[in-house]
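Reminder to self: tokens first, then the designed residues, so the page reads top to bottom the way the pipeline ran.
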């Protein structure tokens, strides 16, 4: 029991002294971080990185849009059994009834009924 009490007192004293020194060090780090953030060179590089990130995000969005369109086209070709690839979201759909499930643009617009399905 005597050893546990010494350990507890030692831990408490160490915590108290460490907390006091830790607070001063923390304030020093915060002060230097603020100075670093206010540096004109750092601000210029941050703006440059932000602009580049925006540009890359736009390119990634365009690439994803293109890939999604190609995937939809490939799925349509597979569903219709066509040997000729379609070119775009509505291509290859000429002559189909816009209310049928073959019209992929109508997906999710309402419940399917037995008469809505058409297969080649």
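Designed residues (120 positions):
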């Amino acid at each position: 029991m005597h050893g546990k009490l010494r350990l507890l007192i030692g831990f408490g004293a160490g915590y108290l002294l460490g907390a006091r020194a830790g607070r001063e060090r923390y304030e020093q780090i915060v002060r230097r971080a603020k100075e670093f953030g206010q540096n004109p060179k750092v601000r210029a590089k941050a703006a440059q990185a932000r602009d580049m990130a925006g540009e890359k995000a736009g390119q990634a969005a365009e690439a994803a849009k293109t890939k999604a369109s190609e995937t939809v086209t490939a799925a349509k070709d597979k569903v219709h059994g066509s040997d000729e690839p379609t070119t775009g979201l509505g291509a290859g759909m000429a002559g189909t009834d816009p209310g049928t499930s073959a019209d992929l643009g109508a997906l999710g617009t309402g419940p399917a009924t037995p008469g809505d399905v058409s297969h080649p």
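The longest helix spans residues 40-80.
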